[in-house]
Amino acid sequence: MLRSICLINAEIKKCGRTILAALFMCLYCASAEPQEEYLHSLQEKALSLKLHEARYWKILLHYEKSLTGLKSVVDDPEFFASPQGKQDTKKELLATLEAFFEPPVENETQHPVCKWIARFHWLSAQLEINPSRLPHSDCAIYHKVIKELNPESVALSYPASFINSPASMFGHTLLVIDSKGKNRLLSKTLNYAAQVNTSFGPLFAIKGIFGMYKGYHVILPYYDKVEQYNDISQRDIWEYELNLNPDERNRLIRHVWELQNIYSDYYFFKENCSYNLLFALEAARPGVELNETFTFQTIPIDTVKLIKEKGFISKRYFRPSQAVKIETLAEGLSPKDIKLVKKIARGQVETKQAEDYFSDIDLQRRFISLTAEYTQLLYAEEEISAEAYRTRFVDILKIRSKLGVAEKGAYEPEEPEAPELGHHPIRKSVAIGKNSNQAYASVALRPAYHALEDPLYGYIPGAQIEFFETELRYNFDDENVLLKNFNMINVLSLAPSSTFTDPASWSFYTGYQKRELEQHISRDEIIIRGSSGKTRRITESVMAYLMFGAWGVQSNKLDADYDLGPVAQSGLAWRNGNAGQGTLKASYLGLLLNNRENIVEINFDQSVNITRNQVISLNVDWSDVDGVNFWETSVSWRFFNY
Amino acid sequence: MNKKILKIIAVASLAGGMAFAGNVRDNCGCGLGSMALGDEEGLASNLAATFLNAISGNQTFGISSGTLGCDQANTLTGLRQAEEYIAGNMDHLAFDIASGEGAALDSVADLLNVDEEIRLVYFQNLQNNFASIFSDEEVNAKEVLNKMASLLI
Fold first, then answer.
1. CB-based contact, B85 to chain A, within 8 Å
2. pTM for the whole structure
3. Domain spans in chain A, listed from the N-terminal domain onward
4. What single-letter DSSP state applies at residue A132?
5. What domain range is B141 assigned to?
6. What's the CATH architecture for A424-641?
7. How confident is the model over A330-363, as pLDDT tens digits?
8. Do the chains contact at B47 and A261, CB–CB below 8 Å?
9. Residue of B nearest to A189 (CA)
C-alpha cells in the first residue's frame, strides 16, 4: 500500500526548510488521492502485463532459478523495494512502483526514481508512466554524471590468472566505461570483488567457496586497477572492447548505476566477479542469454569466450605486466649488460655509470629504460627503500630524458596467445588401458580448469589448476566398476626463474586415490600433500622442476589408519608447438610415523592435439611400493567444453 | 595554440598559488565526482560522487608526496582531474615524460585538452625539461602540473 504519504505535518516539518518546499509539499499532499489511484492503475496494468515474469525484470533484479523457485543473486536489502524482494518478483514489482511515489527527498539520489533509474526507465516505457503524475520524476544528478562521464564505449577487462596467488588463479573480469576523447586509463570501472578480511589462505578459501564474504560492486578509476594488476601483481591484462550501440550502452550504465555499492554474497566458483558482470551485459542487450550458460562454475575467461561467441566483442587489446615489459626491454642486451642494470638498480653501482654505456642510441635507450623499470620493480617488491628508489629512479630518468623518443612500438611486447582462444575448462575423457592385473576401460570428468597435459595455447605454461577430477573404471577380468580416484584439488604452480625474477614453485593436492599394492590388492587412500621448490626453463619449450614437501594419508589398510611422511617431486613439462604436449614426472613418497614404506611413482603422458579442444593421449604409469612394481598403460581420448 | 589551452595555463598558474584547503569527502575521496558535484555542497550525494569519483587512495609508488586539496578550484574540471591523476600516477608519468611518450602522458594531455597536432612537440618539450619538472624527488602533483602547464606555451 501507499506508504502514509499524507502525514502532512511530519512531512512538512521535515521538508519545509523553505517556503517553496513547504508550498510544494502541500500541493503534493493535496493531490495524494489521485496519486494513489494512479499507482493502483499502474500496478494493475503491470500485473495484467505480467511484468514480474518479464525477462528484463528478472535481469534488472538478478533473479535466477534456484531449488526453491526464482531468487535474486543480490543479497543487499538496499537493492530491493520489498523486504521479500529477493524471493518474490511480484511483490518486488508492486513495491517498486509504490516506491516511485515516495515524496521528494533532500538527497535526490536516495529517491527510488533516481536510485533505481534502470527500473524506472524500463517500467516507464512498459507502463507508459506519466512523469508529471509522480511526486518526483527526475534524476538530475544522474544526467549530470553522464554528461561529465561522456561515455563512448564499454570494454570488458580481463586481468589474466596469477598462479602464485590462489585467490586469483582463475583471473578476474571488470567492466570499463570509456569516456570520449580520453585515454582508457582515465575510464571508470565497475568491479565486483569480495571484501576480504583475512590473509590466511585456507580460511580465505573456505569462506570464499561457501559464500561467507560479501562482494561489493564498486566504481574505481581504471588506472588504479591497471596499476594493481600490471605493476603490483605482475598480471597481464586483456581488454575486449564491446560493440554496444548507444541505447545498449545507456541501458548498461543505468544498470551499473543501480549496482554501485550494492553487495551480493560472494561465491568463488559461481557467483563471482564474472558472473555478476554478465547481468550488466544482459541489461545492455536483453535479447542475449548469458548467465544461463553457467551451472556450477563461472570461470572468468569462459565469460569472455561466451560473449565473444554471442558477438559482443569488436576489438582486443593487450596491456602487458611490468614483468613482461622488462623482459621485452632486455631483449638484445647481454648478460653482462643486465648484470650492470641490476647493480645500478640496487645501488651497488653509481647511476652515473649508466651514462654513455652504449654508443648505439637504441641500445642505450633500452638499457636506461630497463634500469628504470627494474628499479621500480625492486621497489614494488620492497627490496629497496622508498628514499633510495625515488632518488635513483629520478636520476635514471634524467639520463633517459636526453635520449629522445624511441621508434614507434620498438619496446612493445608481442601480443601473446589470446587466452579466450585456449581450450575449454571441462575435460571429459574415455580411455582403455592395461595394467599388471588386467585390461580396463575408464571414463573421467574434470570440471575445471587446466593441467600440464592439456593443450597449452593461451594458457600460462606450468600453471595447473584442477578441481574435482573423478575417474570411474570398469575392469574386464574382475567385471566390476570402481572409483579409481577423486582428485578434489590438484594445483601445480611451476613458475620458471627468469633473468629478473626468481619465484618459488609449489604444488598442493588433496583427494582420494586407489593405490595398487600388488596383484589384485589395492588400498583406498585419502591424501593431503604439499610441496615447494624451483622451476627452470631448459629450452624455450621445456621446463624442469624439483620440489620437496610432505604428505598425510588416511587408509584403513595402514597401521593406526593414517600416516605422515616426506615427499620429493621432480619432472619435465614440454610443449610440441600446437601439435601436442607432454610430461614426465617422478615422485617419492615416504611413510614414517606408524608404518615404514617407500613409494616411488613415475608417470609419462604425451598428447597429440587434434584440435584445441580434443586430444589423444598415451599415458604410462609405473609405481613401486616397497619393492613391488605395478605397470599401467592407457590410451585416452580427452575433449573439452564449458 | 588554442584559447582553451591558454585559459588552462592561466588558471593553472593561479591554482598553483592557492593554498591547500579543506576536507576530503570521507566516503568518496575527491576527484571527478566531487568535482562534478562541487557546486552542490548541500546535495553531497555519496552515490553520485562515488560513481564519478573513484577513490584514488595513496600512491603506491613513492615519488609523489602531495596530498590533494579537494576543495580548491571547483570549476577547473580538467585541472582538478589532471592533478588527481598525476598524484596517483606520478611514477608512470615521470617515466613517460623522460621517454617522450606513453599512456600516462597521453592521459594528462587528454585531461588538459591538449590538441593532437601539438602533442608531439609538447611531449618533446616536456622531455627536454624533465630535470626541471622533477627538480627534486619530493615534488608534488600540483608542482608537476604547473610546470607541465607552463611548458604548453
1. yes
2. 0.83
3. 8-137, 150-319, 330-400, 424-641
4. G
5. 1-20+72-153
6. Beta Barrel (2.40)
7. 988 999 999 999 999 999 999 999 999 999 999 9
8. yes
9. B54
